[in-house]
Structures are given as structure tokens and as C-alpha cells.
Amino acid sequence: KDFRNSVKPNWCPGCGDFSVQAAIQRAAANVGYEPSELAIISGIGCSGRISGYINSYGFHGIHGRALPIAQGLKMANKDLKVIASGGDGDGFAIGMGHTIHAIRRNIDITYVVMDNQIYGLTKGQTSPRSAAGFITKSTPGGAIEPSLKPLEVALTAGATFVAQGFSTDIKELTAMIEAGLNHKGFSFINVFSPCVTYNKVNTYDWFKENLTKLADIEGYDSSNREMAMQTVMRHEGLVTGVIYQDTETTSYQDKIKGYSELPLTDIDISLSEDQFDQLIKEFM
Ligand code: SF4
């Protein structure tokens, strides 16, 4: 399966988003999807362009609204595999309400966040993921607020799959996206995807020095939510790997009677003229 298309990404050379794109393409191929079975829904930001760079269905939505569109799509067509994606500004600022509710709803889609701790598309402003003291054009005296903690938020909101990757480790990133695609329920994957143009603090070297792989922590058990939360807090969120997975909880779709029988898109809802007139009368 080839998920590459002929569109050349216009991300800056060295942007972490290139690796996220490659990892999504490899993971989708490894899981065995056909391009016609997959839809990538993105929000606004540099990372939002990803939906146009992958050979699948794609929808470049509006700011912070990738998840509502992705969830609606999945509800309308159960046979479609759906990935929502966007940046940390998109998903953790304007889109945060949707992120929390999609997580607790446990709808069967995968959400990949390209987290570069800055707004890149608008040329470098502080994002909810920027650390306190972070200096940008929007916070020349340093960010006053502390950084949002997406892993803790996801675990607290009842996530059944939480993972975090780093752009340079495509092998690990591909494996976790693959695991997320195979997960029955909502899979939340945060990816450290450096903005080489505007974020001169959280660079590739910075992440290499500060990240810990969960695979290197002896006895780490990704089925233990308490251990996941304690480990994330102990490492200040700077871990990579599958942090938590609950394979027991039923997905949103599986709780709906009849959902698995026929995609809504295949149900004939055409009305005769009389039926249509009758329907209109009911609303008059
Ligand atoms: Fe990537 Fe930053 Fe360039 Fe945007 S501005 S494409 S996030 S490196």
C-alpha cells in the first residue's frame, strides 16, 4: 500500500512534521489499510497541512475542529479508518474542549498531535505547551502561565490509549501509531515535533537530552493507569512510548445498538415528494 502522493510538503527543511507524516504512512500500510479506507482530518497550523500530503481521503478543517469533523465522519461511516491530526495550539488551545470530550467519549479514532510548543504558522507565538518563561513575540517578558500537561489531562479524562513519540525516532513512532490504529477506542498520541524555525529552546538536541523511553524503565506496565500517571509526573511529561492502554473498556460505537450493522452512509434516506412535504409540515 502506498500512502505517498505527489504533493511536496512546504514545511521548513528539518521540521519535525515530515517524520510524523512518514510514520502515519508507514503505520497505515503496516496495519493493512487501503488508501481508500483511510481519512485524515486536520485542523489549522503548519501541521494541519498533513491531510493534503497523504494518499488517502483528507479534509483540512478549521482551527481546533479536527476532532468534531473526524468523530462525525466515523459515526457516519463505520468502515472508514479515521485519523485526526493537528498542532498543540490547535488541539490544546482553541480545540481543548473537543479534545477532552473526544477522549472521554472513547470514540474509535486516532488523534495525532504534532507538539512543537509554539505557534509556527503565525510566525512564533507562545502556545499552551510553551514553558513558563518562554520568550516569544507574544510574551517578550517570558510566558507567565505554566505549560499545559496533555498526558495528565488525557489520563484524567479517562483515555484508553495514551502514547507519546519523538519525531526523530520514526521506528518507535510508527509502532505507537500502529498500536493506536489497532486500538478499539480513542487513541491519543502526542508527538514532540520540533519547530526548527521559531522554537530555539525545545530543539532536537534538547529532546535527546531530556527524553526517557518507557522501554528503558524496568517494570513499567502500560496497563496500570496509576503507574502511568506517576511516571509521567515524575518525568515531567518527558517520556516516549505507549504510556497507557486499556483494552477492556468498550468504545463509544460499540455501545450503540445497530452501529456495527451498516454504515449510515449506506442507508437509503431518500424521501418521496409526499414524504418530504409531510416532514416539512411536521416542522411548520
Ligand atoms: Fe515546521 Fe516551524 Fe516551519 Fe511550521 S514554522 S513548518 S512548525 S519548522
TrEMBL record:
Write one Pfam family the protein is assigned to: TPP_enzyme_C
Enumerate the spans annotated as Thiamine pyrophosphate enzyme TPP-binding domain.
44-191
* Residues of the Pyruvate ferredoxin oxidoreductase beta subunit C-terminal domain: 195-260
Classification via NCBIfam families: PorB_KorB
SUPFAM superfamilies per UniProt: Thiamin diphosphate-binding fold (THDP-binding) (SSF52518)
Protein name stated in the entry: 2-oxoacid:ferredoxin oxidoreductase subunit beta
Instruction: Could you list this entry's UniProt keywords, alphabetically sorted.
Output: Iron, Iron-sulfur, Magnesium, Metal-binding, Oxidoreductase, Thiamine pyrophosphate
InterPro entries in alphabetical order:
2-oxoacid:Fd_oxidoreductase, OFOB, PFO_beta_C, THDP-binding, TPP_enzyme_TPP-bd
Q: Which cofactors? A: Mg(2+); [4Fe-4S] cluster; thiamine diphosphate
